[in-house]
Amino acid sequence: MNSPSQSLFTLTQGAGGLPKLTLFAPDGARAEIYLHGAQITSWVPAGGAERFFMSRNSQFSSDTPIRGGIPVIFPQFGTTGPLAQHGFARLMEWEFMSAQAIATRASAVFSLRDTEDSRRLWDYPFAAELTVLLGDNQLAVTLAITNIGPKPMTFTSALHTYFAVADLAATTVENLAGIQYRDAAAGWTDHQQTQPALGFMGEVNRIYFNAPAELCLSEPTRTTLIRSEGFADTVIWNPSATKCPTMPDLEPTDYQRFVCVEAAAIGNPIELAPGERWQGTQTLLA
Ligand code: BG6
Question: Which strands form 277-285's sheet, in the order they lie side by side?
């Protein structure tokens, strides 16, 4: 338990000198969020252990994405459009707006607006807001996007969560039976999942379309429930022993230390008329 005098948050210099907010829930839970990308890099539920993977080789510089935690993917998932992979929101400096304690929980809000640079890449004025709600063994992350420009806009998006796992071979994602998926690791072919559980014996890079609102990350010593609202799809990714060594901000064996389960809107891109707002939430229950 935090003492009543313990602060709700601190704003300090994190790795690479980048500004980092640490949020403390009244129940003792803690999360760290870099303003670079509004990227959550740590989640420790009250009395528990770190739930997120963070690469020791992550760059922490203003022009590269942070590797681990929850990268915010907007306005383009992957290479599905003209922008660089996964869009630009994870590369931009977000603004910390507010934090408050609500009973046993704490929340913090971050905001991002289009800039001259973003409009050069993608000519749409937007207001993005990321709300982090922490406490009661949960972390709920909500991304809201408002079209503040004069023309309709379309985007894809994801909360690209890196879960730390202790034993990859014994880890599964459950509740997938019957779901259609596109397999990027098998030439972008389309399939239907027959088994309820997906294991990680090799490269996994799948977009599950219209995925269940609740999935379960099952490990020998713990489970994490993963709920999503507003994001129709789920991406599951692990680069395996083959691809991991080709990624400079990961150590060659890091694939053994994480599984990404991403709440995503890809199959049906989000379309917003001028003034319209969309939001999606990923809630993790330890
Ligand atoms: C996943 C994609 O969401 O993100 C993978 O499905 C990609 O294809 C991975 O390799 C990591 O992307 P990045 O840009 O962070 O290296």
Answer: 95-102, 105-113, 126-135, 138-147, 277-285, 223-229, 214-218, 172-174, 197-198
Is the CB of 36 inside a 6 Å radius of any atom of ligand 1? no
pTM above 0.85, yes or no: yes
Report the nearest atom of ligand 1 relative to the CA of 85.
14
Provide the β-strand partners of residue 121: none
23-82 residue pLDDT tens: 999 999 999 999 999 999 999 999 999 999 999 999 999 999 999 999 999 999 999 899
- Residue 93 annotated in active site: no
pLDDT tens string 206-259: 999 999 999 999 999 999 999 999 999 999 999 999 999 999 999 999 999 999
Does 69 sit in the ligand 1 pocket, CB within 6 Å?
no
Q: Is the CB of 162 under 6 A from ligand 1?
A: no
The reply to whether ligand 1 has any atom less than 6 angstroms from the CB of 160 is yes
Q: Is 86 a catalytic residue?
A: no
Looking at the 3D structure of the chain, how many domains does it have? 1
Atom of ligand 1 nearest to the CA of 86: 14
**197/185 Cα distance (integer angstroms):** 18
Residue 4 in domain = no
The number of C-alpha atoms within 13 Å of 202 and in the hemisphere containing its C-beta is 4
Give domain status of residue 76, yes or no. Answer: yes
Task: Out of 79, 86, 163, 262, give the residue to mutate to test ligand 1, the one with the largest number of ligand atoms within 8 Å of its CB.
Answer: 86
Q: Identify the CATH number of the domain in which residue 279 sits.
A: 2.70.98.10
- The answer to the question of residue 3 being in a domain is no
Question: What is the distance in A from the centroid of ligand 1 to the CA of 78?
Answer: 7
DSSP summary character for residue 196: S
